[in-house]
Amino acid sequence: SLSAGLDLPGRFLFAILTLMTLIAILVFIEEAVYIYRKIPSSKRSIIIWINAAAPVISSTSCIGMWVPRSTMFTDFTAGIFFAIVIHKFLMMMIKECGGQKVLLRRFENGHFTITTGPCCCCCLCLPRVPITRQTLFWLKLGTFQFAVFRPVLVFLSIVLWTNGNYVLYNVSPKGPALWISCFIGALTLCALWAVGIMFRKVRILLKCKNIIPKFALYQFIVILNHLQTTIINIFATQKIIPCAPPLSSTARGSYIAQQLLIMEMFLITVISRVVYRRKYHDLEPPECMAEEPGDKKQTP
């Protein structure tokens, strides 16, 4: 623990960040109670899972901040949880459309546009894919594989780490860390691609259910938890972030990333409460029936 070696400003910063984490947890608990009481059971657990993403990441970052040696375990825990949340977000969009059968009926003659990020946004020559039960299965499989294989790869990494074979910041081709990270990165891109394809199709239909700000919050968590942390760790390994005894460059980079995540996830938790705090009904209002231009419009 670093608490014994902290000066007064450092202890004050730790106290503020810990307080922000506790407030985020309390806000989530209050929101979970509201969701449990007000939202139909078919959507209840999915929405609670998605709302829990930011508080869980904030909590793991806070633990890693107080106990630096636990950083690897806390990062892996946050990664596993968010892998499940990505799949839950896709399922939430399907549920908000009324379920798979209703979605297929609403978009009976529609098509998925697969030229979307993060995989194929530049491949404009790719054809549009008809919306069928099979294509929905492949989209769900795209996120489900990440929720399954990410925990398996994390478990493998911990086993290798305890044996001394896995070094987190070792990017040598001879070490397993590089290959496991590349494989996880490929799985992540496939999962995000599936969510992006579905969102692009339903964003107008679900505009009355705040799907655009919900997707924006989800994207912010992806960027901050993955891209931001990766960039800081790269800077740390290249010694761009200088060491500050007793912290090495890599330890200080991890330390900075955790503190930033606590503040960012606190803000996302508070904003999520505003965005998700509404009653959920089936898609009945006429304004919810709008579809993307070019598709055959269905009568309510």
Automatic annotation (TrEMBL):
GO terms for cellular component: membrane. Its main location: membrane. It holds the Pfam family Solute_trans_a. Keywords: Membrane, Transmembrane, Transmembrane helix. InterPro entries: Ostalpha/TMEM184C. The chain crosses the membrane at residues 12-34, 46-67, 73-91, 137-161, 176-195, 215-236, 256-276. This is OSTA protein. It comes from Agelaius phoeniceus (Red-winged blackbird).
